[in-house]
Amino acid sequence: MTISMYQASVPVLVRMLGNLSAILTKAAAYAEAKKIEPRVLLDARLAPDMLSFTRQVQIATDIAKGCGARLAAADVPKYEDNEASFDELQARITKTVAFLNSLRPEQIDGSEDRDVTIPTRDQPLQFKGLVFLLNFVLPNFYFHVTTAYAILRHNGLEIGKLDFLGAR
């Protein structure tokens, strides 16, 4: 049995974004129940030189939409990065999932050898599609989703491994 580029990307990203969305729902309820100003959690970080919870969610969605678009040879949707509430982060996740779900398997399957270029401040990063997905997208995506989870857990939100993994 083989796995397609579509199967290895879009459903995986959509599932984890859904899990992240569920965690955000719990975080908003936690802040309300404990009378914690939401900005405290949204601005929280694990270390002083680390990006905030909000940025972790923004970057996770950027990686996901960028992956789908680049593997499908489509334009990467642009977001403002101005979310300032749990609801706005939820809307960003919803928008990202809708974009990913708009991509069809035939747009992505066969992209293993597609040239993918990521613009950076210094010089563009260049990959072939499979290497891009396995060695760049998935590790980065999971890093930012995990960090968002860890920031909330560190701040007292009662979540566990099953929240991160989601329902089977």
UniProtKB/TrEMBL annotation:
- Name the Pfam families on file: DUF1993 (PF09351)
Q: Which InterPro entries match?
A: DinB/YfiT-like, DUF1993
Q: Does the keyword Membrane apply?
A: yes
Membrane-spanning ranges: 130-152
Enumerate the UniProt keywords alphabetically. Membrane, Transmembrane, Transmembrane helix
Kindly indicate whether the keyword Transmembrane helix belongs to this entry: yes
**What protein name does the entry list?**
DUF1993 domain-containing protein
Q: What organism does the UniProt record list as the source?
A: Sorangium cellulosum (strain So ce56) (Polyangium cellulosum (strain So ce56))
Species classification: Bacteria, Pseudomonadati, Myxococcota, Polyangia, Polyangiales
